[in-house]
Structures are given as structure tokens and as C-alpha cells.
Amino acid sequence: MTNDAAQTNGPWRVHGGREVFDNPWLTLVDYRVTHPDGRDGDYGVVRFKNRAIGVLPVDEEGCVYLVGQHRFPLGRYSWEAPEGGAPKSEDPLEGAKRELKEETGLTARGWAPLAAFDVSNSVTDEEAVCFLAWGLEAGESAPDPTEILKVRRIPFAALLEEVLTGRIRDSLTIVMALAAQARALRGELPVAISSAIGYAVDKQGTERGL
Fold it and tell me: What is the reported pTM?
């Protein structure tokens, strides 16, 4: 929608748009629109060229691996599940395998879809596709030259605690943690992984007297 021909986008009328900014990862487009209430105006949209990919690696003891790095846009350090971007033309699972290996050195024998969602749908078209990985094997990591990463292994229950208390704020990690817990409780994951996750959560609840 970068020409002058008016098009319909739900209750919006789009009269064209112009690229304000472009780089290898995203394009910012300023659209001329008629709002649903009939007023004319502008709507800026960030168009992502890659798909966000996330991986929640869980071992047989119910522990997960997190990656720590400084996030430039936020100006603070962030602990997250392994994640990154993959071309939209690439199979998301292949992108997930690559990101897991690059950031942690881990490879996995088992994979399952975990969640798919829109990351920030008021101003971007970015979508995320996330996977659960198990049957983990250690290896050498190979992060991008711009990445200074740390890796830590924590119990799944500790991950949930950090999510629920706001110490972990990364959206992909939050969604993956809650989705893994829900799918484990619904019996939608391999028995060994469901048991490991369920045991970790049950143990934490018992310690709290729940």
C-alpha cells in the first residue's frame, strides 16, 4: 500500500503511503488514511522483514536455559529465552534450531510448536513463532559479533517466578513460559517434559504451602 489508490483496510481507508525509513531489518511506512470516524490523518507502521523466533529449551530435570544481554532500545540488561529473527521465507523451525545453537551451543533431539502471536499489533506487523526444545546436548555457541551473551540454567519454577514478579519482561519469554505450563497441564507435551515441568511447579507450590 505505497501507491495513491485508496484501499480498504477494515474500517479504515488507505490513500497511499511513503517509506520514511528502511534498513535490512525493518521499514517504517507513513500511511495517509481516513479514520473509522471519517477524519483524515496518518498512521505509522513498522514493517518487519524477519519473523521473531523463540525457543524454550527444557532439560530432563525441568530446568531451562536463559540468555542475558543488554538491550539497546531499553537501555537495560535482559534475561530471555534464546530468540532472534529469521527470514519470513525460512521454515520457522530451522530458524529456531539455528538461534538455539548460536546463542547457547545447545542442540535438541525433540521439538514442538509452543506459541505463535503478534508482538505489538498497534504499530507493527511483527509476528513471533516459538518452540519447545528437549533432549538437549551441549556444544559450542557462535553468537553474532555484536552480541555479548551470558547463559544460565534455572529451574522452570524459578522462570515462572521471575515472569510473574516482573523480573523477566521479554514478551517471547513470558508467552513461552506460560504456554509451556499450560500445555504441560493439558497433557500436550511429551510425558517426560510435562512431568519435569509439572514436578518443578508442584514442588514450588508445596514449599509455599499451596
Answer: 0.88
